[in-house]
Amino acid sequence: MSSDVTADVVVVGAGIVGCAIARALAGTHLTVTLVEARDDVGDGTSKANTALLHTGFDATPDTLESRLVARGYDLLGAYAEQTGIPVERTGAMLVAWTEEEADALPGLMVKAERNGYRDCGLVQTEEIYRRVPDLGPGALAGLTVPGESIICTWTTNLALATDAVARGAILLRGARVTGATVGPEHTTLHTTRGDVRGRWVINAAGLGADLLDAEFGHQRFTVTPRRGELLVFDKLARPMVPVIVLAVPSSRGKGVLVSPTIYGNVMVGPTSENLTDRTATGTSESGFEFLVSKGRALMPALFDEEITATYAGLRAASDHDDYLIDVDAAARYLLVGGIRSTGLTSGMAVAEYVTGLLAEAGVDVTERDGLPPPPRMPNIGEVGVRPYQDAERVADDPEYGRIVCFCERVSAGEIRDAFASPIPPADLDGLRRRTRVMNGRCQGFYCGAHTAQLLAAGTAR
Ligand SMILES: Cc1cc2nc3c(=O)[nH]c(=O)nc-3n(C[C@H](O)[C@H](O)[C@H](O)COP(=O)(O)OP(=O)(O)OC[C@H]3O[C@@H](n4cnc5c(N)ncnc54)[C@H](O)[C@@H]3O)c2cc1C
């Protein structure tokens, strides 16, 4: 599939960051091609995280990351309202279990203020247990962070990609970039689906960003895949966790949290383990045991409920302490690297920042008139009304009342819609991310065969 067309900008990587950038630039007069190695958008790190919309209260002040997380929080919050990305404004409680941790809380409040976040409050033991009665014994003091929220990472990625495509971006899936030839007028990217040409190239390749960077002659950073494993609990556990329960960060990292999920479950995690294999998204026995022991101390009653799933994601950690976003104007090339543990939140702000850097490099990024409205995404969260709950909708279209997945209450109408959408799923995992089908406690035992039939029919269309 080689093309003679030269796009103004080629964005490599259709995770949240690449899709946000493609969306932003497709809103200007530039032509944009978005190239993704996998068969779907949002199939890398962006699909497997803790899905918190961070205020950035605990970021390192005065870093690019702290600035972009705070800005991204506002941008994504507003975009979620426009598009229907599920968000639940649960708030968080940071809990101190030792005197040392309790002593650290006032400092964290000052840090939050340096990051522009002024809503934190110190609370005593009694108030902690009033808010989270099922917390394990021994909590000494707490810090409230009312703005921390839970969000649907899958819908975020898909909304940004759908918007980019509606604005005219060309999306190439299944096209891994294997090399680049930089010429005087344009760069040719060699991909597994043929050559793709762009005047500018933006590298948003996540775990592969350093490898692509080397194709442009740079040797400035190395990505270390830092695995985070998580446990998912049955929905019966959800009332125990009304807010996100955070650990006091230490030199060893942010620690293990207990959080409600946007789909009505509870999760415990993540672990933090540096690996060398950039594809190692499997979970491990040691990770499981670590999370069970940590989680049991945090909330023993949680372990009376069942763990229904485990998963792992890989952070694109790097040898830099901050995001690494840099322009090579001579090669018309821009690196967006090291977007480690906050890129879901910051993605739209990263896109805004990148747009500004292109403007400084002389690229016209004036927004176009007549942009299509943002897409309205199907609601797969528990906060809003799901199709099966909407009597009028079911009366109009009985397919929304025909349940395929009984655990997650996913209807045949939603599965049909996913295949008819601008970016249809390519496989079962893609269908899960768009509808929640097979994501319940039976993990597809009851609906797996039926869903596979629907997938075969849908992809054959
Ligand atoms: C355990 C864990 C918990 C996290 N929790 C949170 C959280 O609560 N809140 C938050 O804001 N952030 C969180 N994050 C971070 C967040 O998930 C990431 O920062 C974000 O998803 C990064 O998005 P991305 O687009 O940069 O990367 P990705 O989603 O990995 O996208 C990069 C894409 O580039 C593609 N690609 C790579 N190489 C090539 C190539 N050569 N050619 C073509 N395509 C290529 C990949 O296939 C991939 O799809 C967490 C991360 C992890 C792992």
UniProtKB/TrEMBL annotation:
CDD domains associated with the record: GlpA-like_Fer2_BFD-like (cd19946)
Keywords: Oxidoreductase
Domain BFD-like [2Fe-2S]-binding: 403-456
Class of enzymatic activity (EC top level): oxidoreductase
FAD dependent oxidoreductase domain segment(s): 8-355
Keyword Methyltransferase set for record: no
One of the record's GO molecular function terms: glycerol-3-phosphate dehydrogenase (quinone) activity
Transmembrane annotation, as ranges: none
InterPro entries documented for this protein: BFD-like_2Fe2S-bd_dom, BFD-like_2Fe2S-bd_dom_sf, FAD-dep_OxRdtase, FAD/NAD-bd_sf, G3P_Oxidase/Oxidoreductase
EC number annotated for this UniProt entry: 1.1.5.3
Keyword Secreted (UniProt): no
Name the UniProt record assigns to this protein: Anaerobic glycerol-3-phosphate dehydrogenase subunit A
Species name: Mycolicibacterium chlorophenolicum
